[in-house]
Design goal:
Layout (H helix, E strand, L loop, with lengths): L1 E7 L8 E7 L4 E5 L12 H4 L15 E2 L2 E2 L2 H19 L4 E5 L5 H15 L4 E3 L6 H11 L8 H6 L2 E5 L3 H4 L1 H13 L4 E5 L12 E3 L6 H13 L6 H7 E2 L1 H8 L4 H8 L3 H13 L3 E5 L1 H4 L4 H14 L9 E4 L6 H7 L15 H11 L12 H9 L5 E5 L3 H4 L3 H10 L2 E6 L12 E4 L8 E4 L4 E5 L12 H11 L11 H13 L18 H6 L3 E2 L26 E2 L17 E6 L15 H4 L6 E4 L1 H7 L6 E5 L4 E8 L7 E5 L32 E7 L4 E7 L10 E7 L2 E8 L6 H9 L8 E5 L4 E8 L2 E9 L7 H6 L8 H9 L12 E3 L4 E2 H9 L5 H8 L9 H16 L1
Parallel strand pairs: 6-7, 6-14, 8-9, 8-12, 9-10, 11-20, 12-13, 14-15, 15-16, 21-25, 22-24
Antiparallel strand pairs: 1-2, 2-3, 4-5, 4-16, 17-18, 18-19, 21-26, 22-25, 23-24, 23-26, 27-29, 27-32, 28-29, 30-31, 31-32, 33-34
Helix pairs in contact: 2-20, 3-15, 3-20, 3-21, 4-14, 8-10, 8-11, 8-12, 8-14, 17-19, 28-30
The chain binds ligand MGD (2 copies), iron/sulfur cluster (SF4) and molybdenum atom (MO).
The site of one ligand MGD has 35 residues, from α18, β15 and β21.
Length: 885
């Protein structure tokens, strides 16, 4: 017997349906939900590994005050009284909430209601400021509301899909799979990828435009000017449904082809090819993500794109439209409840007094915020300079993810009262909490999320609630009650919160507000339980179905027309030659943000196990960093140390570093410590993709690699990076001086008992040293040291943690650091579902498997979630090209 529960993946904004299956013995496994309209059964590597991340290791299970266990009553009373007291003494703007697009809609609704309606301040902002706020601002300028017009189906129906500032293959893998399948079925479909880097996504592109950082506004201005002179322009749509075309066109036509080449860094041939493709293809969808949003010109980028769709009337019809891909599972739900400091609730505007009155009437609240609160970067500045004296951080890890992260850490450390609600005991942020509240995590909590295509799905609990952990909405509601608003925050369950949220969306809504889910205003426990995924809008009495906006106009400005925005080319402020390089930051396939969940999975950690900087071969040569050496990256704000990954996928003059690593997993790889707190002037979103930095090699005396059964403790070397491995941990190291005894060093950090003597090998001349500690036939730790980056077969070494070493010869093989005869080193993991390494794939290709399918037949690689198929194709192409030379 087993139970199956339908729920939604807690990672990216694709919002895939997941079926969790619990066996009688309590074992949980997950698979894709074939009935869910976002994924139709597909999952990516992260979704497939969900069951590996739900253990209670490292969880916070009881409330704590100053590090001491406390009861919920005591903790909540303290939070309520400190917030009330601070407000009484210093006014409502002296407190703040910093929340997250990973909260469920119900959590988010309560947080926003408490701050805006009852505390009476708009000082609630969210990590969506770092993620979606430029899209929100761009939508509001163009459409009069924060509306995503299209659906995922449009991406499949299009004849041209433009992906700009999106690494879809790694960040929205199931949309990528849907796109790849559509193209395979209909090869005439064209894909254009616009990204300074040649990413895995670029591998399915017919055209890759390696644009200069922040060249996007110019590119789409050029496109608008080009379209204006062609039959693609839709005068009828422009005339009937829009304003401001003449001004936008005039602004766009100031650039000639030479300007465009200069500003975008693209050859004229490619520019013309791109312009012509857009001109000649009616069904075009432009998907964009953080390469667009996270920029000092992010809002203008959004509007430059939207302008081209409005000018051609290619919006809101099947296969057509601009498409902002949301990052977090509930980025959209957060926008619906008004979780940003400059929004109100249910897509109503904080700057509109009628909206404020309406929300206040609905909430029957004593007060309502009537002006925007502080946006994330400004909020933490206000914490730093003492204007904000009480702060509640929920479901986000700002010490890792905020720009100028060291200053953010210092601000939080100095704040008189800090509450953190998280699922983990130890994160870079929880260490600063005066009150740490244990939250329920995925699988334990109930609520809803909205994905990129406006589809609302249930997350359902299928696990027992661990320890004393409680839902985030409950924590906030309890504090609201204790601050004196008992009636307004008495919600028996998440279903009641959802029903109130739905009712507010329909309240006095005559169709002038896009967000209306009035059909669900009477949701009760039973209907909530059974709620099937649905797309909004769904006003009362409206039937569920595929929904699109704006095909026939109907925008949300007062005149019901859209606005063209006359964007201008951003001025570059790169004058400081001390920081000549551009730092671009982003994501890798198998880690999620600050690694608090994906970092628990050995399988996911095997894909890329340490922080790195992609660097162009010529830049590497000029700076003097060899491949696999360590590189130190510096800006006026901070420094980071990561591994150099020399590759011509990276453009000259830029570095790419992932945002994931933090102080729990590496010595000094919080890249946001280096990122400047520069923001887009309209949206306030940080420009995390174009940061002026310098880079230099980090000179070290020796490099190390280790595998250890026990988690390595108290690491303090110039460089270390820790990752979970099957059977234990793997550790990359570098030393700037040798300790007195390497054996002792290993004992201390790997927890090796004194009675165990290592098997060892040392070569004083080369500096090579290897130590292996066995307890009986089991390997406890193996340590490899060299003057150059250590060349040991990593995955093979990790496997030694799990096998029995009964023969002495096998133990010596560990010291030798390489497999014995007849045993291949699998190499770095490419397919995390089946644990297939690069060396195995290369061998299969040499053995005659010349397609992704053939490799799949031979090794299973790429046949489950498919997230690695682009990489497998790359390996095949690389091998075949090498063979042809
Ligand atoms: N595996 C994984 N998936 C995730 C996440 C994760 O942590 N891990 N996080 C989720 C979240 S919250 C988000 S917001 C999304 C983000 O999803 P994406 O936006 O696709 O991911 P990023 O890697 O941040 O950035 C995308 C690309 O923008 C490019 N870029 C940089 N500068 C420019 C520029 O000036 N112009 C253009 N056109 N492109 C540029 C970068 O080179 C990068 O390849 O991913 C979601 N999915
Ligand atoms: N340099 C650079 N910086 C970036 C970005 C970038 O591309 N480059 N991207 C930005 C973007 S788009 C985003 S979205 C942010 C993401 O950055 P964060 O939001 O800081 O990243 P997460 O690791 O997702 O943090 C979520 C936290 O909530 C906890 N958590 C998990 N589930 C729950 C729950 O149910 N309840 C509670 N209370 N806590 C929970 C996790 O343990 C973790 O500590 O980073 C931003 N920062
Ligand atoms: S694409 Fe992957 S991470 Fe995103 S929702 Fe689907 S399974 Fe989860
Ligand atoms: Mo994000």
């Amino acid at each position: 017997m087993s139970t199956e529960i339908k729920t939604t993946c807690p990672y990216c904004g694709v919002g895939c349906g997941v079926i969790a299956r619990i066996d009688d013995n309590g074992t949980v496994s997950v698979k894709g939900d074939a009935d869910h309209p976002a994924n139709f059964g597909r999952l990516c590597s992260k979704g497939s590994a969900l069951a590996e991340t739900i253990d209670l290791d490292g969880r916070v299970l009881h409330p704590q005050i100053n590090g001491e266990r406390a009861s919920w009553d005591k903790a909540l009373d303290l939070v309520a009284s400190r917030f009330s007291q601070t407000i009484a003494e210093h006014g409502p703007d002296s407190v703040a909430f910093y929340v997250s697009g990973q909260l469920l809609t119900e959590d988010y609704y309560i947080a926003n209601k408490l701050m805006k309606g009852f505390i009476g301040s708009a000082n609630i902002d969210t990590n969506s400021r770092l993620c979606m706020s430029s899209s929100v601002a761009g939508h509001k300028r163009a459409f009069g509301a924060d509306t995503v017009p299209g659906t995922y189906e449009d991406i499949e129906l299009a004849d041209l899909v433009i992906l700009t500032g999106s690494n879809l293959a790694w960040c929205h893998p199931v949309i990528y799979q849907r796109l790849a399948a559509a193209k395979a079925a209909r090869p005439s479909m064209k894909i254009v990828v616009i990204d300074p880097r040649r990413t895995m996504t670029a591998d399915i592109a017919d055209l890759h435009l390696a644009i200069r950082p922040d060249g996007d506004v110019a590119l789409f201005m050029g496109l608008l000017a080009h379209l204006a002179g062609t039959a693609a322009i839709d005068q009828n749509y422009i005339g009937k449904h829009t304003n401001g075309f003449a001004e936008a066109f005039a602004a766009a036509s100031t650039l000639d082809i030479a300007d465009l080449m200069e500003l975008t860094g693209l050859p004229s041939m490619q520019l013309r090819q791109f312009f012509r493709l857009f001109e000649e293809t009616e069904k075009v969808v432009t998907c964009y993500s953080q390469g667009v949003n996270q920029s000092a010109s992010g809002t203008d980028k959004v509007n430059a794109i939207v302008n081209c769709h409005l000018a051609t009337g290619r919006i809101g019809r099947p296969g057509m439209g601009p498409f902002s891909l949301t990052g977090q599972p509930n980025a959209m739900g957060g926008r619906e409840v008004g979780g940003l400091a400059n929004m109100l609730a249910a897509h109503m505007a904080i700057e509109n007094p009628e909206d404020c009155d309406r929300v206040q009437r609905f909430w029957q609240s004593p007060d309502i915020a009537r002006k925007a609160g502080l946006k994330a970067v400004d909020m933490f500045r206000a914490v730093a300079d003492g204007r904000i004296k009480a702060l509640w951080i929920m479901a986000t890890n700002p010490v890792v993810s905020m720009p100028d992260a060291d200053a953010v850490a210092a601000a939080i450390a100095a704040c008189p009262f800090v509450v953190v609600s998280d699922v983990l005991q130890e994160t870079d942020t929880t260490q600063y909490a005066h009150v740490l509240l244990p939250s329920l995590g995925w699988g334990e909590k109930d609520g809803t999320v909205t994905n990129s295509e406006r589809r609302i799905s249930r997350q359902r609990a299928f696990l027992d609630q661990p320890g004393e952990a409680k839902a985030d909405w409950w924590q906030m509601a309890e504090v609201g009650r204790r601050m004196g608003f008992a009636d307004e925050f008495s919600f028996p369950s998440a279903a009641d919160v959802f029903a109130e949220h739905a009712a507010l969306s329909a309240f006095e809504n005559d169709g002038s507000r896009d967000f209306d889910i009035g059909a669900h205003a009477r949701t009760d426990a039973a209907t909530y339980d059974a709620l099937a995924p649905f797309q909004w809008p769904q006003p009362e009495h409206a039937a569920a179905g595929i929904t699109r906006f704006f095909g026939e106009g109907g925008f949300f400005h007062a005149d019901r027309k859209a606005r063209f925005i006359a964007v201008e080319v951003p001025v570059s402020d790169r004058t400081n030659t001390d920081f000549p390089l551009t730092l671009n930051t982003g994501r890798i396939r198998d880690q999620w943000h600050t690694m608090t969940r994906t970092g628990k999975s050995a399988r996911l950690s095997a894909h890329i196990a340490e922080p790195f900087a992609e660097i162009h071969p010529r830049d590497a040569m000029e700076i003097g960093v060899a491949s696999a050496a360590l590189v130190e990256i510096e800006s006026p704000y901070g420094t980071a140390v990561v591994r150099a990954l020399v590759t011509d996928r990276q453009a000259r003059g830029s570095l790419f570093v992932p945002m994931h690593w933090n102080d729990q997993f590496a010595a000094k790889a919080r890249i946001d410590a280096v990122v400047a707190p520069l923001t887009d002037p309209v949206s306030g979103q940080p420009a995390s993709k174009n940061v002026a930095v310098s880079a230099r090699p980090l000179r070290v005396e020796s490099y190390g690699f280790a595998v250890s059964f026990a988690k390595p403790q108290n690491l303090d070397t110039v460089y270390w990076a820790l990752a979970k491995a099957i059977g234990g941990w793997r550790l990359e190291l570098a030393f700037d001086a040798a300790p007195d005894s390497w054996t002792e060093w290993c004992r201390v950090h790997f927890g090796i008992p004194d009675h165990i003597e290592p098997l060892g090998y040392a070569d004083a001349q080369s500096g090579d040293l290897r130590l292996a500690f066995f307890e009986g036939d089991r390997l406890l730790a193996a340590f490899f040291l060299a003057r150059q980056p250590v060349a040991v077969a990593r995955n093979w070494a990790i496997e030694q943690l799990a096998v029995r070493h009964t023969e002495l010869a096998k133990r010596f093989a560990v010291v030798a650091g390489r497999p014995g005869a007849g045993r291949m080193d699998p190499g770095a993991t490419v397919c995390s579902c089946f644990g297939v390494g690069v060396n195995q794939i290369v061998a299969a290709v040499r053995g005659g498997c010349h397609s992704v399918e053939a490799v799949g037949k031979d090794l299973n690689a790429g046949t489950n979630c498919g997230s690695c198929r682009a990489e497998i194709r790359g390996i095949i192409d690389g091998c075949l090209a090498a063979a042809a030379e």
